[in-house]
Every structure is written in structure tokens, then in C-alpha cells.
Amino acid sequence: MSKDFQILTRKKYDFFECSSAFQKSIRRCIEKDALFFGTELAASGYAQYLWKRMLIISSEDIGLADNNVAVQIQALYQNWQVIAAKNPEEGIIPIVHAILLLARSKKSRIVDNAKMFACKSDYRPDVPDYALDTHTRRGKRMGRSLQFFLDEGSKLNNVADIDDPYSDFFTQYITDYANKQVPITGYDADNIYHKNTKEKDNFLNKQKQTLFYYDETQQNK
């Protein structure tokens, strides 16, 4: 590409500078500038690009500071797709909504910083002992039973204060299954368990055939 080649917006801003100014304005909570540069990109035919940037910003510059923002930006993007398909002029509404949301949100760079750590550092931990349960070959060779899974493999930290009326049943079933007192389908003989996708597909095909036969017999009455 020639060094003289330049992509310009409708008001003659360099495309890359406009994009950079938009994201930096979001980061600094300079709302009016963010609105200007964002709508400038959208009105210049780069709305899809703008949405890509806003989806990235929702994680890169906000992230854990407000976990709802990424979901809200995705929802507004879907709104834009519906609205802009029928009325491009009205399509600016969810764009403005998204820009205001991003500009006013609490900020954090932890997601982008963590991405760099995860992808660029030399951190390489050993597999911890608690991961070597009956779901792994090494755990099986070590003779680790489902009881080890109950004690170590299913252990949670930072547990939410939520009442769980099914916890005792889970423990009882795993214990009974480990002691071969119940099959993998549990306590009801009519429960279903599929070992793989092929087995599940075969079951569903039989169900469809049964339903088809039922419909045929009903029509012939």
C-alpha cells in the first residue's frame, strides 16, 4: 500500500485517527468527543467496524469493573442490526446508547492486562494434585475414586451464599454409584444416559419413528 494512501471519513478525518480518538475518549470518559468520533465512523460507512470496537472496549477497558456492560453492548448491537436494516437513520439510536454506556461506565484494564499475561508470559504451572481425579488417566492409575472427586475435585472457593437443596442428593448419588449400588442412570430405571452423540442420535431417531407411527395410526382412525 502506498504511504500516500489514506482512508478518510465523511468530514475528512483520517480513519485510523478517528478510531483511535474514539477509543481514547471512551477511556478518559470524554463523552462528547466519544459521541462525535463514534457517530463520525458510523455515518462514514464504518458502523460494523464501530460495533466491533465497542464490543472489544466493553472487555478491554471496562471488563470486571462492570460485568453487565459487555452483555448490554451485545444486546444493543443486536438492536442495531434489526433497526438499521429497516431504517438506517434510526439505527444511530442504539449506537449512541452504546457510546454513552461505555463512556460513563467504570473502567478497568484488568482483562487486557490479564490477556497479555496469559498469552505472553512464561508462566507454566504443574498440573495440581487436586486435578488428578478419576476423570484423568493419571488419577485412575493412582487409584483415586469418586470420593476423592467429592472431597477435592468438586471443591469450590469463593462460594456464593445460595441455598442449594440438591447438594445432599448429589453427594448421595455419587457415593451410591461409586459403591455400585445404583447404575449411571440413577434411581429411576426409565432415566436415560447416552455414552456418546451417536448413541443419542440413535435414540432420538427411534423416538421419531415411534412418533411417526403414532401419527399414522391416529390418522387412519
Descriptors:
mainly alpha, Zinc Finger, Delta Prime, domain 3, 2 domains, 0% strand
What is the secondary structure topology, with strand pairs?
Elements: H1 15-27, H2 31-62, H3 68-86, H4 92-104, H5 110-120, H6 137-141, H7 146-153, H8 167-178, H9 197-219
Helix pairs in contact: 1-2, 2-3, 2-4, 3-4
Description:
There is one protein chain. The chain is built from nine helices and no strands. The termini are far apart. α2 packs across α3 and α3 (68-86) packs antiparallel against α4. The longest helix is centred in the N-terminal third of the chain and has 32 residues, at 31-62. The mean pLDDT is 92. The protein is elongated, with a radius of gyration of 28 Å. It has helices at residues 15-27, 31-62, 68-86, 92-104, 110-120, 137-141, 146-153, 167-178, 197-219. It is 62% helix and 0% strand. The protein is mainly alpha-helical and 221 residues long. It has two domains: 15-118, Up-down Bundle (Zinc Finger, Delta Prime, domain 3), CATH 1.20.272; 129-216, no CATH class.
